[in-house]
Amino acid sequence: MKIQISNGRVINPSSGLDEVLDVFIAAGKIVGLGQGPAGFAPNRVIDARNKIVMPGLVDLAARLREPGYEYLATLESEMFAATVGGITSMACPPDTDPPLDEPGLVEMLKHRAKGRNQTNVHPIGALTQQLQGTRLTEMGELRDAGCVAFSQANIPLMDTQVLARALDYASTFGFTVWLQPQDGHLARGGVAHDGEVAARLGLPTIPDCAETIAISTILHLVRHTRARVHLCRLSSAAGLDLVRAAKAEGLPVTCDISINHLHLSEHDIGFFNPHCRLDPPLRSLRDRDALRAGLADGTVDALVSDHSPVDAQSKQVPFEAAEAGATGVELLLPLTLQWARQDSIPLVRALSRITADPSRILGVQAGQIAPGSTADLCIFNPDQEWVVTPQALKSQGKNTPFLNLPLLGRVSHTVVGGFLIYEDARA
Amino acid sequence: MKGNPQLSPDGKLQHLLTIEGLPPSILFHILDTAGNFEHVAQQEIKKVPHLQGKSVFNLFFEASTRTRTTFEIAAKRLSADVINLNVSASSQSKGETLLDTVDNLSAMQADMFVVRHAESGAAHLIANHVAPGIHVINAGDGRHAHPTQALLDMYTIRHFKRRFENLRVAIVGDVLHSRVARSQIHALTTLRVPEVRVIGPKTLIPRDVEKLGVRVYHDMVQGLKDVDVVIMLRLQNERMNGALLPSRDEYFKYYGLTPTKLSRAKPDAIVMHPGPMNRGVEIDSEVADGVQSVILKQVTFGIAVRMAVMSILAGERGGNFS
After folding, report:
1. Handedness of CA A389, A394, A400, A406 (dihedral sign)
2. Is B295's pLDDT higher than 80?
3. Can you tell me the distance from the alpha carbon of A258 to that of A268, in angstroms, rounded to the nearest whole number?
4. In a 3-state reduction of DSSP, which class is residue B122?
5. Residues near A17 by beta carbon (within 8 Å), at least 6 away in sequence
6. Stronger pLDDT, A255 or B318, i.e. the higher one
7. Which residues in chain B are closer than 8 Å to A317, comparing Cβ atoms?
8. Are A26 and A366 in contact (CB under 8 A)?
9. Residue A45's beta-bridge partner residues?
């Protein structure tokens, strides 16, 4: 299949490219920018006038709920939702049922995902067996089966000795360990930031020192083991300060934040909005502003959807009993654009946080538009407004704090490995 | 996002879920209406017809004797049909969800739900879910709110102190876990009490509680100086388990209300407690039974206040009877 994308504004964050030119695709690769190969005869010409052509999004946190939670979502529904969101590569946390702690499970997931010829799925293997924080998984075998990193998902590893050994073992092979920093003891029973809103609503709290204590522990272990660590879903200004200092020190650490924490604060809980029941909790406005600034200056390396489809029934309960999580793959791009608009961030830099930067953390060849690179890209109309309704969302999860809000930016085409896998004529 | 659903677009009370966000005019209307109901208890026939033909469901997901009983008496004095359900013992144990339970009872033509639940936000959840015309009264949700308790406390304060604008009020004890304290704070600040203090050890005071408009004291002797009203909170025994407090004895030493500590308050200060009391833990018997204690008056006023809330929600012009 040969595709020519004509007249679009092409933005490639890794090279700083931002200009109107044609993109030529053949045999799954990008074969020309501006100028096609001699005698290029496309099977398909896509008119991208007034649209932006960018590398396909790379999402570091998308729960597909398979295996084990098919009542919440299926591989099919969520992978389709991802393509609608322009995502061409995504990393999946291991907190499935059973957890991704055996090579067979990972192979099955990879196989099921590949059969769909859609978004590239990169499983994150479990760091410990059953995610129980006691015994190491067969990380080498899991890597060979397709895992790109290892993590505990959002289940805290309470035993510091096990954590130290897991980091040591992973770094033996050069594997990156992804950790969501939250002290399990301080977070016990909590559902909201330890601040004004929890005081008002009477909700059990998780103080931000639950995050800073966990980060401090991890950073000490990184100094000790020299393991490469990616910190997932930062939520606090104080946590971000620790990461900034660690980076200045030269420690091999990176971090990400979610679209929810980029835009929302504890105040959005209002009167117990269950869609704002998130893990980690939404924190103060000051924290949110610090995260935004950190994402702009690169202290925060990547922005992620933290896609966690939850069924309506698990949200239609009192706030503290509600299951944590929000759907997100279809919102990652428009909420990145919204941040760029609100904070006057150049698009090249903003889009880097959802393409080239996460691709670097993932350690895969993705997230760029350059001659010779794999043709994973998306085309979107930056001016199209749409409303986040349950009908508009293709994910099986309709749970998001952004429900019923208008957003700008709609994907019209998604290309994976040179195949046009999604097209929306209205965008 | 669903906001505070307790007011209709034209500002009428649809549900009573929290004091937060209610204008002073509504609070005074409830207190004035309660004043008109106070005499019903003195009549030979303790009944008025305001809720005749209406069904009030007392939906208690958490055990309670006093609150449920006072709501039941209030509804019966208004001539309502009252159905008491202790749901913790039935549906929930069979796996039925909270909203399924509510739907089933709505199908039995309920007009009003009085809800108590162990989790914050349960009353809002139900109010957002029920059909228009069905009213929800929050009889306590988790640590969040207990608005009728706060209203009867305001009624009591007004009864003894006449006005709110010149008072200094101290709330003492486990504010962190107390829905009563949160509702009292909102009520007192809404009614323009100039100084509301909360007193307790740091483990039992929520962080950032100052943003609700209160002053925090950890030293009870300082905190009680020159106050007009002392409100004691109940201390649950289970607080000793979670490393929040070392012992009941030490708690009583520093935060129990004794005659000596009470002498720091104004000579005519009143002492209140939402009940049930732990004598010798948060309050000394000498104070609980002393001349400054108005604790039993609170219970009596509670019935009139709950009658007022129910009649206002049902759309009756409360007090327009002879």
Report:
1. negative
2. yes
3. 15
4. helix
5. A10, A11, A33, A348, A369
6. A255
7. 97-98, 119, 125
8. no
9. A4
Inter-CA distances, A13 with A84, A355, A359, Å: 21, 8, 12
Tell me the CA distances in angstroms from A389 to A398, A401, A404, B1, B43, one per residue in order: 8, 11, 5, 12, 57
Q: Which residue of A has its CA nearest to B118?
A: A318
Residue contact B121–A272, C-beta within 8 A: yes
Output the pLDDT for position A139. 97
DSSP H stretches of helix in A6-102? 75-84
User: Are A6 and A47 in contact, with CB atoms under 8 Å apart?
Assistant: yes
pLDDT of residue B319: 38
Number of Cβ atoms within 10 Å of the Cβ of B73: 17
What CA–CA distance (Å, rounded) separates A92 from B271? Answer: 58
- The answer to whether B113 touches B61, Cβ cutoff 8 Å, is no
* Percent of chain A as helix, strand, coil, to the nearest 5: 30, 25, 45
CA distance B156 to B159: 5
Considering the candidates A22, A194, A306, A357, report the single residue annotated as catalytic: A306
Give B246-270 pLDDT, tens digit per residue. 999 999 999 999 999 999 999 999 9
Q: Which of A194, A196, A201 to mutate to test the interface with B (most CBs of B within 10 A)?
A: A201
pLDDT tens column, A63-119: 998 888 888 778 889 999 999 999 999 999 999 999 999 999 999 998 888 876 689
Residues 6+ apart with CB under 8 A from A280: A180, A182, A206, A211, A233, A235, A261
Identify the DSSP state of A37.
Answer: P
Amino acid (1-letter code) at residue A384: Q
A383 belongs to the catalytic site = no
* Nearby residues of A378 by Cβ (< 8 Å), 6 or more positions away: A53, A54, A55, A56, A57, A86, A88, A333, A411, A413, A414, A415
Residue listed under structure tokens 């015309």: B133
Q: Cα–Cα distance between A149 and A126 in angstroms, integer?
A: 9
Q: What is the DSSP string of B159-224?
A: HHHS-STT-EEEEES--TT-HHHHHHHHHHHHTT-SEEEEE--GGGS-TTGGGGT-EEES-HHHHT
What is the pLDDT at residue B41? 82
Cα–Cα distance measured from residue B204 to residue A405, given in angstroms and rounded to the nearest whole number? 38
Query: Do residues A89 and A359 lie in contact, with contact meaning Cβ atoms separated by under 8 Å?
Result: yes
> CA–CA distance from A152 to each of A139, A163, A167, A378, A391 (Å)?
13, 10, 12, 31, 33
DSSP per position, A351-376: HHTTTHHHHHHHTSS-S---TTSB--
User: Can you tell me whether residue A423 is helix, strand or coil?
Assistant: strand
pLDDT digits (tens, 9 = 90+) for A27-68: 999 999 999 999 999 999 999 999 999 999 999 999 998 888
User: Measured between CB atoms, does B1 come within 8 Å of chain A?
Assistant: yes
Query: What type of residue is B11?
Result: G
Q: Return phi, psi of residue A202, to 5°.
A: 70, 45
User: Is the pTM for the entire model greater than 0.90?
Assistant: yes
